[in-house]
């Protein structure tokens, strides 16, 4: 990397578009250049073209590691190690049946973790997501099973209940000024009490198994083409989005991702997607719950990465005072984020209820809250705000689900599982803290 303000080739991952012909000084390259024309705008070195081939990629990779920009690398390595260890201890772990079941079992926790990611991006925490998930599951079960309300009305009411909870907590946090930790801690108790009140004396309401929530969880597309079609569509969407982004950037005269980089990323994604599709087809096929989970991830990732609303969330998490001075409506962003978090908790709670076919007094309890927060953090979302993505929920949920699945196969007790999961969470926070410290030292945080 160059020591001055003008980055050199090989420092980043984007092509710098060529200067237009009409920008060349009259009289050729030897003609005197006006001071204003000679000034070169400072460009983020991460956005400059890799012109050194493989050497350039390795140099960029080393630069990112040395500056603390680890991205998803730690969690991907952890997932590979976990699968390798449990696969070597028991071949059942890597069987198509177990991996397919794992893809369904992580959906409930993963949905809630997506909402937690949004709150963590603000540098805040929501301790009520477990209770909210149980409350909304109880609302659906009691309305549909006990009172015979139309299943779609019950479903919408349950999800709306989650949004209302988020609105209430967001108002106390953003408008009244009560710390999010205190608001959501109080909510954890209050919403759990409301859930018990709704369930009544019976304490448990069993789902019929034919309701919409149960069908969303249990439906599996057994046609082989379904999983492969999803993989193909995902790869094509990824390729199209990257090509469109590169074309738009080039037309605007700003750094853009080179075709070779796009091709490499697309190939890697295609390999992963089709291997997953092949594995699912070796058992029963594509679970509808997994498809819905992926749709939520992609749509909300688009909201975070490609909309002004998402950029405002990152800005608020990175520097609240700077965001306020930039004209961002801080209160609205905070309230809306807590509404998204509670709404996703409601969605996750419905899938968890469908998984056990009931809503009971234990819904939303146990280690659910810890697992959801751990999934978001382990997946790469920073506890300090301003860094993370919805894909963190998928990666983190896979890590936690894999640990639990592997230890269940090995017959390890719940006590040991809790301790190991807690250790993994602590390790993720340590990595996050060290990464943040390294970035500060490198002037990138």
UniProtKB/TrEMBL annotation:
It comes from Kitasatospora indigofera. This is Xylose transport system permease protein XylH. Coiled coil: none annotated. GO terms for molecular function: transmembrane transporter activity. It holds the Pfam family BPD_transp_2. InterPro entries: ABC_transp_permease. GO terms for cellular component: plasma membrane. The keyword Methyltransferase does not apply. The keyword Glycoprotein does not apply. The chain crosses the membrane at residues 70-90, 102-122, 129-146, 152-173, 180-200, 220-241, 262-280, 286-304, 332-356, 368-386, 393-410, 416-434. Its main location: membrane. It is a multi-pass membrane protein. Residues 1-27 are annotated as: Disordered. Part of the binding-protein-dependent transport system for D-xylose. Probably responsible for the translocation of the substrate across the membrane. It comes from the Bacteria. It is found in: Cell membrane. Keywords: Cell inner membrane, Cell membrane, Membrane, Sugar transport, Transmembrane, Transmembrane helix, Transport.
